[in-house]
Amino acid sequence: MWTLLDNRELSARWHWITCAAPAGMQPGQFVMVRCSAPTSADPWLRQMCWVAQAHADTTTLLVDTQSAGGPWLAAQRPGALLDVLGPLGSAWMPGQRPQTLLALAEGTAVAALVAIIERVVAQGGAALLLTSAPHAERLPPFVLPPEVEYLATDDDVLSLLEAAPRSLDSPLLWADTIVAAGSAALAARLAQRIRRDRFNWAAGLAHFTFNQPLACGVGLCGGCWHETRQGWRLLCHAGPWFDLKTLL
Question: Which of 39, 72, 78, 138 would bridge 35 by S-S if both were Cys, CB 3.0 to 4.6 A apart?
Answer without folding.
Answer: 72
